[in-house]
């Protein structure tokens, strides 16, 4: 049967505070998590999420879109890549990331980003 589903990030099914430097909100669409993350100036995965995740680097595969801001991703192999507003991205497991500049970063992630808290 065809159906349409609409969920609002104003009423997320799950929300995680990231040490006061941001938060993640998640809604489910047809069994698939969709996440909206907001990272404030000064946010870095290794400082704000590593203690929650319990791993040395983020081990989640990300597929998403950057709504606003500038994020720098540091892969475990030493490669760095910048993600800016308007960019679609795919990030493999094994990375750190940080907000660049004074503007917050807003990302929409399609997949299982909540698996690595």
Kindly report the average pLDDT value.
Answer: 92
Number of domains: 1
| End-to-end separation | 34 Å
**Overall radius of gyration:** 14 Å
| Helix share bin | under 10%
Number of strands: 9
Domain Cupin type-2: 61-109
Organism: Glycomyces terrestris
InterPro entries: Cupin_2 (IPR013096), RmlC-like_jellyroll (IPR014710), RmlC_Cupin_sf (IPR011051)
Protein name: Cupin domain-containing protein
Walk me through this protein's architecture:
It is a single chain. The strands form 2 sheets. Strands 1-2-3-9-4-7 form a 6-stranded antiparallel sheet, with no helix packed on it. The protein has 117 residues and is mainly beta. It contains 2 helices and 9 strands; from the N terminus they run βββααββββββ. The protein has helices at residues 45-48, 50-53, and strands at residues 14-17, 22-29, 32-39, 62-68, 70-75, 80-84, 88-91, 95-99, 105-110. The protein starts with 13 loop residues before the first strand and ends in a 7-residue tail after the last strand. It has a single domain (14-115), classed as Jelly Rolls. Helix content is 7%, strand content 45%.
